[in-house]
Amino acid sequence: MFSLLRFRPAWACALALAGLLALVACGGGGGGSMSSSGPPSGSGSSSCPSADCGSVYIAMTDADGDFLSYTVDVVSLTLKRANGAIVETLPATTRIDFAQYVDLTEFLTAATVPRGDYVQGTLRLDYSNADITVEKNGAPVAAQAVDANGQPLGVVDVNVTLDNRHHLVVAPGLPSLFTLDFNLAATNTVDLTTTPATVTVTPALVASLELVDQKDLRVRGPLVSVDTTAGTYVVDVRPFNMRAAQFGQVTVHTDDSTNFEINGTTYTGSTGLQALATAGAGTPTVAFGTLTTATREFDATTVNAGTSVPGAGIDTVMGDVVARSGNSLTVRGATIVRNSDGARFVRGSVTVTIGADTKVVKSGTVPALTVGPEAISVGQSIAAFGTATPVDPSVMRGDWTLNATAGRVRMRETRLYGFVNQAADGELSLKLDSIGGRRISAFNFAGTGATTADDADPMNYQVSTGSLDLSRLSAGEPTRVIGFPTAFGMAPPDFDARTLVDQPALPALLQIGWGMSGTTTPFTSQEAGSLVLNLANPAIGGRHSILIGPRHVDLLSLPASPIIVPPGDGRTAYLIVMQGMSESFHDFGDFVTSLGQHLNGSTVMLGLTASGSYDGNSNVLTARTIVVVLK
């Protein structure tokens, strides 16, 4: 038994919307029984002899996109062996809001599958009851998913075939890693001019035998047992906000720096693990941490348990504070998880009422800090625990209230994007673009300052950076800042930065399209080590840009076409999409060769999306993932 969370069964899959679906195959016994005839029972037993099976872990994540919510039902995830046999890996249909997984990956299930070479994966999605929300003029609005012909989507099978040199090999005792990227940016086009807004979907999965993006991991489920000597505990995996079913077991590793919050009380290290043991089997848990790919070990940095888990015995609101007046916080575009009926994304406003007895915990430090209610300011990302009530029960996605006067609020690290005005001596001035993925037009900064004149100004947002290195920040350049807004009524400064990401390190996303007619000549050069777009092509449509954080670079404004190259090392995944099929590659040269074979004069390219990093000085985009759509 190896130590990626020391799972008994095994599959880990990380699905990214612009994100990833990671599947890990490894040896071991136990787990939900698998068959080629349908989903497993999830009972934790296996009908597959250990000598003939390997273990697989499935997890889900997302990449940044244009969505506040993107909730669909995942009906099944099947794998196809080289001999044609089909194996189902999900024990039950799961409803997932992919837009909530920009910054993390969640373990979905653990299963046992027969040994062999796996050459294809199929994800079945049901859009019949999809709940998709986009932002229009600062407000959340509903969107409808349609196909290329404008027809509403129902059940969709998304297939991906692995290249011949990179099959998924499953064998007893041999860990493998497989990732699938359901890339929202590459496969969804949003039209805000319609009512409701429409999202044209071209489903595709980018497959890789490695995790292309390493993100924080989350593991959820009821507690099974605790080993205080080993510093570990075991859970029955129950992903997302599911209330029932068993998805296998996971062992989570903790250490002296692991933060615990159990039933609203904070602990650190072994004290927290002992408190978890006292809470007993069946206690709801959520663990956040990191996965070391080489050793397959998951180490938890934060563990929440009992009523500190959203919706476990207490209602919870999660989102960003867009305004505050006295003890009233306004959260717009929030996820509500009620103890009585589960999770939902609401497009209206949630009014959270706090008071002197509200317990407020500031996460992100070891140990976590207990602070006063005044610490919560505009822009703060929060999880508020109390009693949630819809203003109008007939409109469950409209306005809500949450009474947290006798509850608690967890302050979470806040992420903001902006353009540098000035940077010097521990201070940074930004022109804000977004907070927590929301446009600045959604926020009202009244009351944030010590006086009205001191209220935060999004055009000149003052960030305290302490000892962080500002030497690489230049005026006018974009940056990402992670930290906490200053306590309400105490600005300036407006924000306390814990982390800075300057332009060279910001992710870049190149997008270009050639309309529904496509083009047979998308490139001026196709080499084993590079691609150069043909920017003189008159067929180029409305999409032709590179997004670098909040910066928008028009490809047609550049003096020359960017050169698209693979990285010198690290993880990569490239995908060719055509109707009814997708081909996935690890090697850039193999990808370019196959692409050239497809572009034979009768096949056209509709669109290309590449993500990685962009060097404006050399005009080179280093792409770790590429998705091209052909017809």
Descriptive labels:
single chain, 631 residues, mainly beta, OB fold (Dihydrolipoamide Acetyltransferase, E2P), 5 domains, 19-stranded mixed beta sheet, nine-stranded mixed beta sheet, 3 helices, 4% helix, disordered N terminus
Helix content: under 10%
Distance between the termini: 46 Å
Ranges where pLDDT stays below 50 over 5 or more residues in a row are: 1-46
Question: Could you say which structural class the secondary elements and strand pairing correspond to?
Answer: mainly beta
**Number of H/I helices:** 3
Domain unit count? 5
Strand proportion: over 45%
Shape: globular
Q: In this structure, how is the largest beta sheet organized?
A: 19 strands, mixed
Rounded radius of gyration (Å) = 24 Å
Please give the number of β-strands: 44
| Mean pLDDT across all amino acids | 84
Give a verbal description of the structure.
This protein has 631 residues and is mainly β. The chain is built from three helices and 44 strands. It starts with 20 loop residues before the first strand and ends with a strand. Residues 1-46 have low confidence and may be disordered.
